[in-house]
Amino acid sequence: MKIFILGINGFIGNALARRLVASQKVEVSGVDINSYNIEDLKKKKNFFFYKLDVFKAQNKIENILKKSDVVIPLVAIATPNVYVKDPLRIFRLDFESNLEIIKLCAKYRKRIIFPSTSEVYGMCNDKYFDEKKSKFILGPINKPRWIYSCSKQLLDRVILAFTEQKSIKSTIFRPFNWIGPKLDSLKEAQLGNGRVLSIFINNILRNKNLHLVNGGNQSRSLTYIDDGIDALEKIIFSDSKKINGEIFNIGNPKNNISIKDLASKIIYIYNLKSNKKYKGKIVTKTEKEFYGSGYQDIEFRLPSISNAKNKLKWSPKNNLNNSLNKTLDYYLDKND
Ligand code: UGA
Q1: Quick check: is 65 in a domain?
Q2: 151, part of any domain
Q3: Mean pLDDT score of the chain, rounded to an integer?
């Protein structure tokens, strides 16, 4: 089986490629503008890397896609600060560039495995977000935070429409706050262009204050990257007919935690591990102060994972302590 991963150097891309290459069951081709996360894979016989920009190398990308069996388009910016500060970048990269890939998959009748997002549910009021029943609740247009959610939602709908007319085979997965090594670089986190855990870790390592947006009572279900990659492997190697048109929430409802508790917990783990104690403080900021007026928060986010449990026989294995410990170890190691 030939698998084509776009955005292979990214957080999910590099971890997935590493697992697939090691399994020896498939051939992996990948494109990205960077390769710092996959240097070690370049010498493997079943791995092919092409340093290409999705906006400039359409013909080369079409050629690789044509020869592949499964296409996994992971190119995207997934950090809320950028949704607010540069929504058109999200539109061009996350939406337009992926739409072109989806159209190519339809042209060549390929199987696509597409990353949607937990963010499509937005401010949904359901206790557990359900792929088939939950309503998507997004804020007004003057809150560009929702451009990512909205872009992914439309791509999900386009993929399902192509699947209905039998131009493609598809499976959509929705990561719920995946964490782990290489989540974001510390440089990105320092600019505020990370996700909450990488921003907290970066600030702890520099003894800077941790900021709780709106007091930190909002919660997220943190999911360890290895569990996410287990789910992706199951999707890739399942009978494509059986999970054609399916959508899977991939998250860990048992790892649900408020951002306030996450801040205390990660400081506690850091202080246990490190011989230097963290010297900063936990302080509160309003969402406007932290992100600007284009932001609106999501109060809670719990996935229903019964579809993945039933159809993929998948459940997450890593509890919160384990997931945070392994993520912090990676950054401590990198910071030395
Ligand atoms: C994330 C991102 O949009 C994507 O990575 C992804 O698609 C999706 O959700 C997911 O991974 O499931 P969100 O969870 O809101 O969205 O983003 P984070 O930056 O991780 O923030 C989590 C919460 O912490 C938010 O309520 C945010 O306001 C808060 N936060 C963030 C703080 O309190 N302090 C900070 O320093 C940073």
Answers
A1: no
A2: yes
A3: 97
What total of structural domains would you count in the chain?
1
Q: Measured in whole angstroms, how far is the alpha carbon of residue 295 from the centre of its chain?
A: 19
Residue with tokens 């500060």: 85
CATH at residue 244: 3.40.50.720
Give me the domain span that covers residue 162.
76-331
223: left (phi over 0), alpha (psi -120 to 50) or beta: beta
What are the backbone dihedrals phi and psi of residue 204, each rounded to the nearest 5 degrees, phi first? -65, -45
Residues lining ligand 1, CB < 6 A?
A: 78, 80, 117-119, 148, 175-178, 195-196, 199, 211-213, 216, 218, 220, 259, 297-298
Enumerate residue ranges in the chain where pLDDT < 70.
336
Q: Which atom of ligand 1 is nearest to the CA of 174?
A: 12
